[in-house]
Amino acid sequence: MRFAVRLNTLKARIVAALGVLIAGIVAIALIGVAALRTLDQTVSRELDGLTQAAEITNGLVVTLFDGLRTGEQFLTDRAATTRQAFHDAGERAYGYQSRLSALPDLRETDRLMIARIAELQAEVEVWYSLAHAQVDLGRRTAAENTVTQVRAPTEELLRLVQDFSALQRNRAGIVAQSLQRSSNDGRMMVWTVLAASVLLGIVVGIATVRAVERPLSRLEAVAKRFAEGDLRPVTLGGMPEELASLADAMTRISTKLRTLVASLIGESERIAASANDFSAISEQLAASAGEISTAMIDVSGGAGLQVSGLHESASAIEQLRTATERNGKMAERLAELGEEIHRLAAKYQKDVSVSATTLLELGDVVQTSAGQVEELDRLSEAVYDFVELIKTISTQTNLLALNAAIEAARAGERGIGFAVVADEVRQLADSSGAAAEEVTQTLSAVRTQVGEVSSTMAAGRAKVRGVETIAQGAAEALDEIRRAIEEVEEGAKRVKSDAAGNLDSAHRILQEIRKASEAASSHASASEEVAAAAEQQGASTQEMAAQATQLNEAAERLRTLVKGFRV
Amino acid sequence: MRNRRNVLPLLLVAAVSGCGSSDGPILIGLAGPFSEQRGASMQLGAELAVAEVNDGGGVRGRPLQLVILDDSASAETAVRVARELYESPGLVAVVGHLTSGTTIAAAPIYNGGSRSVVQLSPSASSPQLSGVGPYTFRVCPSDLVHGARLAEWAWQELGARTAAVLYQNDAYGRGVRTTFQQSFEDLGGAVVSEDPFAAALPTFEPYLRRLAQRGGADVVMIAGTRAGAERIIATLDSLGYSYPVVGGDGLSGIEAADVDATGTLISSAYLPDRVSPRNEVFVAAYQAAFGDVLPDHRGAGAYDAVHLLARVIEEVGPDRRRIQEYLATVGSESAPYQGVTGVIAFDENGDVPDKEVVIGVVRDGRVVTAIRR
Q1: H helices of B240-319, where?
Q2: ipTM of the complex, rounded to two decimals
Q3: Core-most of A235, B14, B150, B297, by most CB within 10 Å?
Q4: What pLDDT digit, counting tens, does each position of A532-548 carry?
């Protein structure tokens, strides 16, 4: 874990992994070069030593034999050149012995041998020199005796030289073995370091891949949940720095979306409720409009009867004098009819007033709903902004992944592991982009619905206003009817009270009746107007009811859409 | 006396073999042919110097002690002795060896390995010793100087134009022979014969008779040691030849031989009659310690070598490497050493090129400084 804390970015991890590998390779190269150089130096030094030793040993052997040969030869030929050759051989032998002593890495046995060879060679030389002197003096027998003294040291000398050569050969073998050993050591060292650095590289590589893969799979799972509409809170745990900002963004997005969708659901519930209310009121309105219409038809019917009654009374007036009794009855009936009309008119005026109040209430509801829909629309706008943010993040992540893939490709075989990781990151970016796209689509569906609801409401509001006007017109017309009826009643009352009066009164009554007939006619046309208006209102309320149903349906669809989210 | 001296080294070795602590004595090796007279001289000089140092409070408060090993003047034995001294843990330097052959043979041991130790020879004069290794030093001049000095003296003072050379067939003899021959021929002289000898040679008579038959020589040059020289002088006497005899410092001690060596000229790095206050004190002390004998160049060389080492150890401590480093600067970066044999100042080869060689002559059983004509 301490490792993870120190290497808390992907870059640091990758650099560390590659660094370990490169350091290992450099170490191997250095060790290899050092080992080769050491080996090279050792080989050249040993070979140099061996070559020199061999050369000197060979030279010494040849020289010793030269000395023996010329020493012996002089005894018979006594030539100056032979003596000189003998002397030179002695000098050369000393030279070789000095060079042998100067050889590096000589062992003690070598030194002892060289010292002994020098002593023996000196002895042999001395014996031959004495023999030569004796020969020079003509003492051949003495010389021959002297030379016999040479035998023993000569034999020892030759044996020693042979032994020395053998020693040098052995030494070559030993040198070869030691070279072999040091070469093996170097090779072993290189293999060890190679294995260690490969192992370390693998361990760090696996750790890095894991450190990248685990947060990525967590992010992927969270993105999938978002795509499925599950917006419940997420815990993503520890992340490398590069992914931590992405994780942060996702957490923030989930929080924002949750808040937004929660308010969306609330709004849609309220809209649905309002739409229901609206629908109920519309239906109620339609029902009362129907009643008004029916009542108006009745009123209209009643008025028609009154008018024909009046016409009848007008003609009867002509026979008034003969039919004052019937006239009284007629007037009575007329009063009764007026009474009924008055009652009906009063009743419908009340109904109309109720329906007008209801309409005003409906207007308020529609107004409120419109406000709520606008709020919803505004909220959707905010959601759009966040979705845009997600899209931007996913695009950037995609670019990052592409860059990483290029870097990985550059790193060659070492980067294959990371290329896989980069591809994962890219896919994640794609899926979060797709999720954002889905959210966009959902939102635009929501917004379309909201727009429809909004326009439906606007239409409803206009209709309500129309109904209001119509209702007011109806109320005014009814008022007019009532007033006309009152006039008729008054006239009828007077007819009734004066029927029994004089003829003059009959004329006046006739005039009054004519006036009443005129009023009744106008009242009939007014009540027809009311009926027409009531019918129109009925149609409007029908339409409004239809729209209320539509609004209800839209609200229902909206509710279904937001039900897809889990918050 | 002889027997006691032979037993002493063994006792000393036994006594010091367990030593090596930093509180005990500081060990200095002494290697030479102590069973021979020349070796005995070297040992006396060294022991006198050690006694003087210890009487003066030792080195850094610790006494000096000699580890004395006999190399019998044999290269073979010298190699073994050198190995033993090299391996000795508390040992910080070696005074030795006495002869050129043994010194050269042992040099690779002292210079080799990781614990190289200084080898300071009192008397090995072969030119071959020059530059064998950074741990090899000597307080005596090389044969190049001896041979040249003898040739010059023979040419100049004896008026010799021809010379017969008898050389001991070893590193020393050949070295002196070669340098003498070169210098003599450079001066215009001729070497008429060069005859090798060894201890095993039964007689010098054929060499000398042949020389006489061929017209003799103005001077007989003996490049060898005292033993051979005694026999040559005896042979010359017996044959009745009266060639003047000259020789290198290998002949030292011949004045005390049975043969009459009077008139023999000897080159030497040191003669006891050397005029210097330091030498007079030394000779007096030597005689006080060892009776009525005079020190030769070997004893004086060993005496100087021990005192020089004591001074160096006092300076840098008993450490093999530091002793070498300091010794190499004596006469260059640090002051030269004023010894009884003269001024000691090392060159880069561990040689003392500026040291003079004097010619002595055997007179009345002594070697005295020869006077130029």
Answers
A1: 277-290, 297-316
A2: 0.78
A3: B297
A4: 766 666 666 666 666 66
